[in-house]
Structure formats: structure tokens, C-alpha cells
């Protein structure tokens, strides 16, 4: 949700305006590749949930250095970034995303299982920030649910129209239709002769 909401708040991607599901598909594609690399090279990776690492960046750098056997120096990270820039995830209560984006949620579960620093280690949002995050998530969910219902209605209409076309072609191919069409042709010819 954080990624999708961030892309929507940024409002700079015309593709996202044309296809609101693009944020989820892009997130899934990126993270499937991340997991594929992680599966091939578990010794060369460190998977972390961004807000969890921002909560203790010095600890994160120590853990990455130890995991990858790299001699990182820990400096004054507060001078380099603002921890508030990496907003924590939305907290419960949340909309029922399971029915809308099951593949993304399954992938997220796999990321959490793989993570060296999972989302459970991130601080919870509080106060006004939490209200804003939840409000944004509810708005996004409502918008996508309406869009999903419209897409379903269009799919059903398209299937009904395709069925009507199939029935009409079947009728046109029938012997009785050929006879009726021939009769009307003959009748028009006879009327034009008079």
C-alpha cells in the first residue's frame, strides 16, 4: 500500500492515471525479481522493509555489514535523511484487500518470510500521520473497488454482446434463415418489377 499510495500522491505518472492497477503490477514485478535474486543468492542479499530500517538506520548498517561481511562505518545518519520521509505502513483497521489484490498480498507474505528486517520491526504510525495514511488507503481502496466493479460490468456486457453475435451468426447460418432471406429478396424483386 505504501508504494501504491506514494505513486498516487506523487501524481506524475500519466500511465498510472490511465491504468490505476499499474502501481500494484509494477510493485509485484519488481519484488518478484528481488525474490528470484534472493533465492539464487541468499548470501548476497539483505531484505528490509523500508520504514523498519529507517527506525534504526545505524543498526541496519551494522546488520548489513555483518551479513555481507563489509566494513561499513557508522556515521551521523540524522544529518543525511529525515526518518519521517519514510512513512510507516498503514495500521489496522484496514480495508479488505485480500479479494482485490491476492497475488500482491501473497508476494508480500513471501517477502516478509524472507526479510532480514521485516515490517514487524518498524514503528507504528501515530496521531495525525496515522489518520492521513488510513484515509489515503481507504480512498484508494474505494476508488479501486469502484473501478473493479465497472470493469466487471463491462466484462459481463462484452460477454453478453459476444453471445448475441454468436446467436445471430447461428441464425444466419440456419436453413430457415436462408429460405426467409431468399423469400424477402424474391419479394423485393417482384415488387420492383411492378
Topology of this structure?
Elements: H1 2-10, H2 14-18, H3 22-40, H4 50-55, H5 57-68, H6 102-114, H7 127-172, H8 175-193
Helix pairs in contact: 3-6
Explain this structure.
The protein is mostly helical and 194 residues long. The protein contains eight helices and no strands. It has helices at residues 2-10, 14-18, 22-40, 50-55, 57-68, 102-114, 127-172, 175-193. The chain is elongated, with a radius of gyration of 29 Å. It starts with a helix and ends with a helix. The relative contact order is 0.11. The mean pLDDT is 81.
Short structural summary:
With about 190 residues, the protein is mostly helical. The chain has helices at about 1-10, 15-20, 20-40, 50-55, 55-70, 100-115, 125-170, 175-194.
List keywords for this structure.
0% strand; mainly alpha
